[in-house]
Amino acid sequence: MSGLKYLLFPGCVIPYRLSSYEISARKVLAKLGVEIVEMPDFNCCGYPMDVINHDLMLTLAARNLCIAEKVGLPIMTLCNGCFCSLNETNKILKEDKTTREKINGYLKEIGMEFRGTTEVKHLIYVLSEDVGFDKIKSAIKKPLTGLRVAQHSGCHVLRPRKYVGRDDPENPTTLKELIKLTGAECLEYMDESECCGNPIIGVNESIPFQMAKEKLEHVRAVGAQALITVCPFCHIMFDLNQPRIERTFNEKFNLPVLHYPQLLGLAMGFSPDELAINELRVKPTELLNLIR
Amino acid sequence: MEERGVEACEYTPPVIKADELDPKFKYKISKIHGAEKIMACFQCGTCTADCPIARFSDFYRPRRIARMVQLGLKDRLISDKALWLCSSCFTCVDHCPQGVEIASIVRILRNMAVAEKNVLPLVYKELATNLMKTGFVYEIPESRLQKRVEQGLPPLPKPNVDEVKKIFEVTGSMSLLEKVQTIAKVEDK
Question: Which architecture does CATH list for B2-117?
Fold first, then answer.
């Protein structure tokens, strides 16, 4: 259990728009004895560039992997997108010699070389596989008994199966188990593993809004008091965009969307302020009254 | 949705002329990482049935894309704006009974559209421009960086932008981006 140490890869969108996720993650990880080392000199994970040029994505991701190899620590991501590109690139370059040689040819131009000595993990796998359920359970000071929530793991922490290969994308249990540790009930709802729609919002708003609206309807239908996410893009879709979705469809959801470490943090006894809960667009006022 | 269903029934597909077909295209694309299994697609339609985008769009159809690749309708494929509607959720990849990685094929076709048709949705051009300038896909304002420190977060490192730019250069991406014509939005039709 001792000696858990990771390079934290915050990515672009979390520092840009969702510090609340990073703040709450750092708080709970520190309390759980996980040591965070700041990732030096990192750049965008490469994910958004895959549409332009696959080699560009691989090389941008590989630059980050080379930095981690040099430090000699595994990478922990908070974002599903960063996990997708860094983990996939790490696996492709480790397994496929031809691609590795090609990408190393590009990396040579900046004096780097991919060796294949690091690992990439998303926050939920650090918590479930490395910290472990027992340790998390023993850190719960204020069980959230009576609270009913739903989870949205998001796509890239589960798919594609051939690169992630940790949880079952058709019936994911990791985040559900992590939620249950807090004492809250994790409700099942229709189409849990449907995508949030955010990846294409820059090219078309109408489809993602319909997707997110349907998700919010399904979550509301089972009576969940909050939706729990582990990806900044999913979070933006359901929290920041919720008022716009409500206006577009003339609906009222008023469904708080918490980052998982915020939920865990509340159960560990942190105050809402310490977990930057005040930064959420949809204020979880009732939820906070309920657990007070 | 009902109305559009009726329209779809009355829709007459345009004629495909034999000289539009490139019979070698499927062989060429299957040599690219991610498209190896394209010939195994037997048009069962699982990809389209399970696609979260296709649920709300009659315009984006992954099964049709797979068939068009097999037929060698490359020019139509990489001119088709529907390509940009895939959300890369990889549901089609995980569900395909034949192991065809449709989402990866869409990525390859997008890369071809950029390289050969010089088209790119504006949003990606903006993200790429920010990335070359700052190392991140957003230009994070100074006030935001200051707020991080006030909130007790460590300062963000300043990535070596010269190295990031060099990566754009050596992968040929910089010249691709100089040539592209951007498209603002993609309508669902």
Answer: Orthogonal Bundle (1.10)
A152 close to B (CB below 8 A): no
Residues of A in contact with B133 (CB under 8 A): none
A278–B contact, CB cutoff 8 A: no
The pLDDT assigned to B4 comes to 54
Q: Shortest Cα distance from B125 to chain A (angstroms)?
A: 9
Distance of CA B9 to the CA centre of its chain: 28
Backbone angles phi, psi at A205, to 5 degrees: -90, -30
Phi, psi (deg, nearest 5) at residue B181: -95, 130
The model's pLDDT over A229-255, given as tens digits with 9 standing for 90+, comes to: 999 999 999 999 999 999 999 999 999
The pTM of this model reads 0.95
CATH number of the domain within which A231 lies: 3.40.50.11810
How many structural domains are present in chain A? Answer: 2
Contact A52 B185 (CB under 8 A): no
Q: What is the pLDDT of residue A105?
A: 98
* Nearest-angstrom CA–CA distance, A40 and B157: 6
The identity of residue B102, as a single letter, is I
Q: Does residue A53 sit at the B interface (CB-CB below 8 Å)?
A: yes
Query: Is residue A89 domain-shared with residue A170, that is, in the same domain?
Result: no
